[in-house]
Batch of 3 targets.
Target 1
Amino acid sequence: MRELVRSSRVLLGGRWLPIYTRGLSGKVYGCYLEPLKRIESQMTAMLSHYTNVMMIRVDIHVKELEGTFDNKIMTDFMHELRKGINRQYGLKRIGYFWVREIETVKHQHYHLVLMVDAAKVNTPKGIFIECEKIARRTYELAKPSLPANSYIKVERGDSETFDRMFYRVSYLTKERGKQRKGKFANNYGSSNIPLNEKKHVTPTSRTFTSGIEYLKQIQAKLAESKVG
């Protein structure tokens, strides 16, 4: 997780993808390359298995702990969550990416992205309830939370939506907040869904090519919403 990318684009899977290295305030971040590769590979793999993939963001909070020595609590959480999703939706293939973070509040927490078949899951409600159930029966965990705009459906071959979601998730790979950890703790984890070569489609259309362009689009939409 040591190599950092500070440019607004990264070449992965034969395409230039926008990444969150510059905020609206102009502050420049560095994003770690290794987890960026995992995010791209798992998004691409899930879309090779399903025509539409539902991507859901959840934040998992740990009670008053400052850097455990490993990520067993998150490994156990994901084990229980996968079982719960399979039981509720009949899904065995579940893509995910999580990153461990400790920032100014000094409390360890995890940002989680789930990827599931959108034909069976069309809102995050059921999965979030499952997350809450696991947290309630796990002493070390506090109540999970859903960030704003917590889910989106990505269609196979839709480069615009793919890139927008990749851009958003790339924010989780920023260098800030990932240096405080136990000696044996990795900073992230992910599923290992294999690519279905027979149904893999490489998106070709392009709407924007960098994070800066995406930020400009966001600002333009905000300005339009204020008109009138």
Target 2
Amino acid sequence: MKIVLNYDSANDFCEGMASVCRDGKWGFIDTSGKEVVPCKYDCVDAFHEGMARVNIGGQWCYSEMDDEQYISGGKTGFVDRTGHEVIPCQYIHADFFHDGLAQVQDGEDIIYIDKSGHRAGPSRRLCSKAFSEGLARFLTREYGFIDKTGSVVIPCIYNDAGDFNEGLARVERNKKWGFVDNAGREVIPCQYSHALDFHEGMAQVWIGGEWSYDEDEGCDFLSGCKIGYIDKSGREVIPCQYDYAKNFHDGLACVNIGEKEYGFIDKTGRVVIRDVHPYTVFSEGLAKVFYGNKSGYIDKTGQVAIPARFDRAYDFHDDLAMVKENRTWGFIDKTGQMVIEYKTEPAPEPPKFPVSDEELPF
């Protein structure tokens, strides 16, 4: 049975909840279409660890650099999945919850809070990031890691570092990347031009190439390198041979398999699906594909699971995918049936919070 709802816009489901907009105000529905969080906020974000950021009083503003709209000002708090505003909208800035803690800015103070809104985590002020697997990056002149008591677990000896993911964190020293475990042991030496976090037991690594500065983007970029995949022992499972590669999702990764051809490989490096868009990823067993100006979905064997009839389509989350078919927006299930319909006109792009968790002004 299709549920028809009166909303102007919506986002993907995450943790069983999707943000929706009515008359410029945002709330959340669950997968049955029930409005759990009333549409009364000026901006909301996806749920993380059972909590979602919400903002009251902010104003939309436009960033020419990102070509996106953001919420500026107002105060931010958190709601839970029952719709209860557990932490009132009182903070200038707030990060997602990670490992049960969120960084917030209260006046001039940057602190960690727990899910009840009480101050928690390190008591001393540190230039630190969000916690991941019990540790958080922090910066003096170099990067290291602290635990939730504020004790230094891994000293500040690295030029750059990523969060812990699947038991390891990527670290950079002298422009070479490797991985450390949560005791600070460098289990994979710093020998790669670049590296990404582990996903499904595999991490992308780069060899060769040169770093250059892009004046238009205002950042360094790496060109002329080759990309491969290592496992957690540091073994190069798939050789560094690709010019383009994505992380593994559902056991498959999109790579270039020719000069102008892209396809999916499995974790042995075997090509299992050919001729896909370079940004294609699998999510919950299905991947969005393009056929002309329409989108559909394929399964992990490359067979068409949902024919290409959509003008816009997004990845599956919580067994539902947001799509636009003709003038109708809504959510389909994995059979391709529209189960939640929420608008028969083009939906506006939703506003975002002004900074991401990587860019909080700490």
Target 3
Amino acid sequence: MVTAAATSKRSASLAWVAAAVVVAIVVALVVVKVARGSGGTSGLGDVSASATLQREVTSPNMAVANAVALAVSSSALTPLTHVADQPLLTLNAKPDVFYVGAEWCPFCAAQRWALAVALGRFGTLSHLDLAWSSDAVGEAYPRTPTLSFVHATYSSPSISFESVETATRTHQPLQVLSARQQAIFSQYDQHRFLPANQPGYPGSIPFLDLGNRYFQAGSNFLPGILSGLTQETIAAGLATASNPVTQDIVGAANQITAGICSLTNSQPTSVCHAPAITSIK
């Protein structure tokens, strides 16, 4: 997790907030641009992920999910926070999955892997880019390999997805939150809804909001396990449940999936009724 508190390992605060207009094309099962803040391009030249890598990350593999659930206790991963008294967050008349991060942030780098795997279980996530967290002197977990959602598209019959990457890996402004997104982020990315956030220091990234029912500030697992690996190696390894990296990524994806299943009336059943998911509910 990245917070504004200087004493936290996972911390840094968002120093900019600007309103922008997000244009959404409402067509239920047609690929659309992921709803996101406006702004520039990635700090590494927007290297597109290969079709093979994207398929390895986003194709649902519940056999691996089930095997990982048997091998790794969910208590080994940071859980999502459940909130029951807030209005359902929706976009385009569907429950909304809302993510805020930054490309320099290593905890965002870790969380994107799990989120991409989870989203692939409910729809089609495309146009991912390769990215790395900052490798500047003094950065935690430098050059963590990851994916970027800056140019992503997503289609799903059951959920919407919106993503904002606020800065490049060199800490330059990248995308800005729309007025709506900023209101959500300001209201929920604080200690009341995310106990891991230190009181008085809102604005943690990565921030994940699953329909205002489940929240996450920080990553479910530490980014260090990804150190020295390539995106291709990580993606190919997702088919092997005994791989420690896969266990962290898929284990975290299972937790996110369980949260999303609570928004979709447990649809699709091939995903939401899998033992790996029902064991978390």
